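Please fill in the sequence for the structure shown.

STRUCTURE ENCODING:
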């Protein structure tokens, strides 16, 4: 079950908020809180508040413990821009866009998966029958033993060291002497 929380009209540019949201996407709720607590980015505090709100919704409305939650989806959309003007030279004006963002956070409950049994890849083994020697054939000796199994050999390759590249040009641009 997915629990959602939204934060609208946050006065931080969406590009800057997406840097922080990428850090917590797919993480457990407790781990995401720790990451946001120690992040120095300005967008981390509103995101932490949103995450705590979403966790509180899960506890209160659905009786789900915090240990069983993870951030399943988080995305940032662009909100409306405030347009301001800044004076330029020769009587011109330059536009300043103060951007805002809308954040949508969705947390889900961790589903416990049944343990999968790993399949072991079987190697092909050669069955080698032991041929009797000429002396054994003449004497009539022949062992009726089970055929011997020979395991395939593994080949270990040594990696060649990377060749060193000589630098022909040390500096491309030089500062002019005064």
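FILLED IN BY: designer on duty
SEQUENCE:
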């Amino acid at each position: 079950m997915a629990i959602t929380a939204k934060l609208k009209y946050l006065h931080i540019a969406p590009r800057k908020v997406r840097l922080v949201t990428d850090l917590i996407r797919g993480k457990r709720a407790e781990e995401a809180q720790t990451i946001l607590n120690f992040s120095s980015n300005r967008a981390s505090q509103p995101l932490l508040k949103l995450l705590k709100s979403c966790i509180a919704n899960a506890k209160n409305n659905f009786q789900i413990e915090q240990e069983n939650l993870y951030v399943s989806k988080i995305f940032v959309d662009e909100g409306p821009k405030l347009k301001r003007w800044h004076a330029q030279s020769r009587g011109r004006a330059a536009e300043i866009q103060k951007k805002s963002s809308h954040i949508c956070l969705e947390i889900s409950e961790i589903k416990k998966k049944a343990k999968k049994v790993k399949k072991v890849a079987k190697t092909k083994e050669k069955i080698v029958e032991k041929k009797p020697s000429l002396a054994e054939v003449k004497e009539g000796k022949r062992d009726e033993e089970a055929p011997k199994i020979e395991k395939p050999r593994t080949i270990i390759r040594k990696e060649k060291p990377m060749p060193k590249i000589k630098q022909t040009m040390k500096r491309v641009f030089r500062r002019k002497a005064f």
